[in-house]
Design brief:
Its cofactor is FMN; Mg(2+). Keywords: Decarboxylase, Flavoprotein, FMN, Ligase, Lyase, Magnesium, Metal-binding, Multifunctional enzyme. There is one protein chain. By secondary structure, this protein is of the alpha/beta class. The protein has one domain: 3-Layer(aba) Sandwich (Rossmann fold), CATH 3.40.50.10300. 26% of the residues lie in helices and 31% in strands. Strands 5-4-1-6-9-10-11-12 form an eight-stranded mixed β-sheet, with helices on both faces. Strand 9, helix 4 and strand 10 form a beta-alpha-beta unit. The longest helix is centred in the C-terminal third of the chain and has 15 residues. The protein starts with 9 loop residues before the first strand and ends with a helix. The chain binds cytidine-5'-monophosphate. Cytidine-5'-monophosphate (C5P) binds next to helix 3 and strand 9.
Length: 220
C-alpha cells in the first residue's frame, strides 16, 4: 500500500473567487468559498504531490506543505498561474474566475449621480483554464457550476476549452456547492472518444477531494 501515490508530481490548483475592483471601495465578485479547491490541494499534498495553490480572497488556511499564492483579480490569478506553470502534472481549475471585469477601475470612489442610473462597462477576463489546456503540458481538470442541462454543458465546456476532465456540480441545489461543506460531483472524461462519468458523493468536500485525487491519475 502506497500512501504517497503522487510523490514526485507537481499539482497546480486555483481556488476561490476573483475580485474585480469597480472603484477603491467597491468590487465585482461571486459566492465561491474556496472550500473545494483547498480540499483538493490538501488531498493532493497528503498524497505526496508538490502543490501550488493560487487563490482569490477566502477565509481558509492551507497547511504549510502547500505553496499558497494569494491574488485578487483574474488577471493576477492568470499571471500567477503562468509563472508557476512549469513541470505541472495536473492543473485543477477550481476557482470561480469572474468572466468580466470593469474596463476601468475608477481611481476615486464613484459618487451617486442624481436621479440617474449608472452603467459600468465590463470587458472579458482571460480564460485561465483554456490557456492552460493550450500549453499541452499538463492534465487539465475544470469545474462547472450549472443549474440545468448539466451533462450537455459539461461536454460542451470540455470540448471548447480543450480540457481532459470536467467536474460538474449542480448549484441550483442548496445543500451542495458554493459555501456548503458538502458537494456532489459528476466527473466527466473521455475514454477512446466516448464520454464517461464517475459520480462522487454526496459527501463532505474533503472526502470528494480525496476521491478525486485518487481517481484522476487512473484516467490520465
Ligand atoms: O466557462 P466557465 O467559467 O463556466 O468554466 C469554468 C471552469 O473554467 C472552471 O474550472 C474555472 O476555474 C475555469 N475558468 C478559468 N478562467 C476563466 C473562467 C473560468 O480558469 N476566466
Amino acid at each position: 500500500f502506497n500512501d504517497k501515490p503522487l510523490q514526485g508530481q507537481r499539482w497546480l490548483i486555483t481556488a476561490g473567487p476573483t475580485v474585480e475592483p469597480i472603484d477603491p471601495v467597491r468590487y465585482l465578485a461571486n459566492r465561491s468559498s474556496g472550500k473545494m479547491g483547498f480540499a483538493i490541494a490538501e488531498a493532493a499534498a497528503k498524497a505526496g504531490a508538490e502543490v501550488v495553490l493560487v487563490t482569490g480572497p477566502v477565509n481558509l488556511l492551507a497547511s504549510s506543505a502547500i505553496k499558497r499564492i494569494d491574488v485578487q483579480t483574474a488577471q493576477q490569478m492568470f499571471e500567477a498561474v503562468k509563472s508557476e506553470f512549469k513541470s505541472i502534472d495536473t492543473f485543477v481549475a477550481c476557482a470561480a474566475v469572474s468572466d468580466y471585469r470593469p474596463t476601468e477601475a475608477a481611481p476615486q470612489k464613484l459618487k451617486k449621480q442624481s436621479d440617474n442610473g449608472l452603467t459600468i462597462e465590463l470587458m472579458q477576463n482571460p480564460d485561465i483554464l483554456k490557456w492552460a489546456a493550450e500549453q499541452n503540458a499538463a492534465f487539465c481538470v475544470g469545474f462547472a457550476a450549472e443549474t440545468n442541462n448539466i451533462e450537455e454543458y459539461a461536454e460542451a465546456k470540455m470540448t471548447k476549452k480543450g480540457i481532459n476532465v470536467i467536474c460538474a456540480n449542480d448549484v441550483s441545489r442548496k445543500d451542495i456547492g458554493f459555501s456548503s461543506d458538502n458537494n456532489e460531483v459528476s466527473v466527466y472524461y473521455k475514454n477512446n472518444g466516448a464520454m464517461q462519468v464517475e459520480r462522487l458523493g454526496p459527501a463532505l468536500k474533503t472526502v470528494i477531494a480525496q476521491q478525486l485525487v485518487s481517481f484522476l491519475p487512473g484516467i490520465k
